[in-house]
Design a protein that fits this description.
Layout (H helix, E strand, L loop, with lengths): L1 H19 L13 E5 L7 E7 L6 H18 L3 E3 L2 E3 L1 H5 L5 H17 L8 H18 L4 H9 L1 H17 L14 H9 L2 E2 L9 E3 L4 H19 L7 H9 L4 H24 L1
Parallel strand pairs: 1-5
Antiparallel strand pairs: 1-2, 2-6, 3-4
Helix pairs in contact: 1-2, 1-9, 2-4, 2-7, 4-5, 4-7, 5-6, 5-7
Amino acid sequence: MAGVVGKYAANKLLGSQMKKYQNKKVSGGDDPFFALIEDPKRPGKMKKVKKVIPAYIPEHDALVLASVKKTAYRLDMCLFNLFGMRFGWESVIGIVPGFGDVVGVLLALSVWRKCQKVEGGLDSGTNTQMLLNIIIDFVVGLVPFLGDLADAAFKANTRNAALLERQLDKKYRPGGRDDRNVAGLDREKRQQNRKSGIYHPQDPPPATVFEDFDDEAEDRRQFMREQDAADRVRQPERTRAPAQQQQQRSGGGGWLSKLTGGNAQSADTGRQQAGNVRR
């Protein structure tokens, strides 16, 4: 149940952002929000799906991951396409020489610090790679104009969000990663497709499950059904009111009170009849 709650809370955090940007094109394999898979209803055609957080990620870490993905998308991808690249707020801010580069590295460091809030923190390899991505992003961005384009292409925040997904997937996925579903796929073609944001339906990236845009309402209904079931299990047995218990202990309202009440009424009736005879 805790896993379901964590998944629902984290994906609710992402839901409004995904809905806001659902008309945006998929931007490569590390796109934090969207991917392309083959449409089972239209063979040979692709459809865009949401990349949501799976239930096996605990609630705390799922919320951290959701926050990192949301921030990375805003900083790296949320605005517009130019020269085949997606631009976010960091790229726009980076146009300002000097000041923009400093603000950009501070924003990237804030995403990195957010990643460190997962249970147990980041492992040393992931932590080093994230810092290296931030340094590369900053140095490249110092070059006027061409550096800004390279910075928009590199996307340090999106890369670091993907690194966090890999760590959480490795840590929490039950039984490790199962590659049986992709055993028949061409390895080189698979890698090329994934870089473009195209995935096999049974081969999602780490710490991710695919969800259609019309599945959100059903997911919410399922969550509410499970919540109601849990509430019914936890509901205590109803206790009798104190007045009712006192009445039962004193015999009031039961067969004894009716019997004694009936005898008293019979005695009163007999006394009245005897008085009438004497008159």
